[in-house]
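User: I'm writing a tutorial on reading structure tokens. Could you give me a worked example: one chain, its sequence, then its tokens, then a sentence or two explaining what the tokens reveal?
Assistant: Sure. Here is the example chain.
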Amino acid sequence: MKLSKYSSNSSNLDVINEALFEEYLDVINEALFEEYLDVINEALFEEYLDVINEAMFEEYLDYLDVINLALFEEYLDVINLALFEEYLDVINEALFEEYLDVINGAIQVLFKLFKLGCDK
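And here are its predicted structure tokens:
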């Protein structure tokens, strides 16, 4: 008798677990996403920093027209926000030392990162 009671409980437990999993999956995923978003972004930035730096100074200089178009049309607010919050010191230094290519490269990287974020 006890054996059948436990096997019945075991079956009920599976049903309960499945119901809980299905009911709260979205909540759990959302909580995980919100909690770890900064960590994920930081990890992505650190992982791809060398690639981004290489792209800044070598590969993506041909995209200047695309970036200028983006600056003056669609992505002006996004790029300005990034420039003035995150990279203000770097850009100020570049302005005063006449490193226009560095500024253009930074803008290109910001555009590429934004585009990568939109594609995903």
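What the tokens reveal: The first helix runs from residue 2 to 47. Residues 48-120 form one domain.
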